[in-house]
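Note to self: the last two entries modelled the partners one at a time, which told us nothing about the interface. This time every component goes in together.
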Amino acid sequence: MRSIPFPNPLRRSREAFTLIELLVVIAIIAILIALLVPAVQKVRDSAAKTQCINNLKQFGIAIHSHHDNFKHIPESVSPWGEGGPPPRTGRGWILKVLPYLDQQPLFDAFAPSLVGDMFSGQGLMNCVPQLQANISVTRCPADDGARGLSTSEYQFSGTLVAVTSYKGVIGTTNMGGGWPTSPSGLTDGHGGILNNGLFFRNSYQVKIKFSQVLDGLSNTLAVGEDIHEQSSHGATFYANGDYASCHAPLNTIFIPPQPGNWPLVMSFRSRHLNFVNFCVADGSVRSLSQSVDWLTYQQMCTRAGGEPVQIP
Amino acid sequence: MRYLLLAPGAVLFLTVLGCSDPNWGSASGTVTSNGKPLASGVVAFHPTNDGPVAVSSISPDGRFKAMTGAKAGLSVGEYKVTVIDQTIPKMGTTESAKLLTPAKYMSEKTTDLTVTIKAGPNAVNLILND
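The predicted structure of the combined assembly is written out below.
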């Protein structure tokens, strides 16, 4: 029997791939992945936006439920003197609306300890375990930095507390004089009661009603988004961590972040694609483009500025 | 066969080239105040026509890079530039911020710094004097 001098097709198929073949296959796979990844990212962004809008909607409903019960917008109690009567517990407005965010047990856990002045070691300082309650409604999924607890929040330095992505709108007050070019030209009044928005740390002295929102509830921003990494004022349940000003242009983001420079950074921004979600005082939620005119944006932030402005 | 390998590189090159927007530029540079580089503060670009304000913080080495919101860069056109560097007041006190840069650069009404942003990268070196 002689061997056949004909190439065996089975044997040939067992030969290795050439380098070129391998590279071509890898290139094709890479191109396919390159097509897939942006699509997946887009879906993730869109899901984060939807959940964020839903969280803000919950805040809108909670603020209205609170107003139904108490006949005023949920108020904050400053821990500083600033003209307000004791007890200066430091309780923020987000804590006050917990029962309307399906968090009655957490509210009840706070209630017995919320006595006395915070700066005498009482008030909110009595509630450190409760301050670590990391509820999802206060966090935007796009805001990575708000996922965990923080030890670097103002007045809670070294203490682990939960942080919020959502801040009440104080108005256009020029926090710490950080934005002297702000078109509204308002000076700094964040420590007092003469603020032109809805949420500030001394609002327990004035207790704003919807009837005092003369610009109209549908023309006034109530709650907006912040990125935790950008500001160290974010303790969720604290009167000095749950508000921000419209004094800076919308979505001003600093790289690298300077969270300690509070006159610059206590404003509204997001990790979404060039827009920031806001809960409007009428309870609806809008996404504001970051290219909104600075003055128009500031006019939306005032409750009784008398400006003819409509939220786009 | 060698040319086949060049193809993905060529595609990548053309993609990068295709991304340049004729209405979008970047602005980066340094700020010096009375001869000394600033190590903190904010640079803001105010458009002379309608449009959003672009902002940058000044890094410790005196450099800045303008951003419009979360997007790096700014629209092409004319801008007035304001620069502010000030101390950080203690929260909860009535202490106010102390200005470290000449006051005229604080407002877009008084600043004499203007810049024209063209498409692509723009080097903007700001010199402040009393």
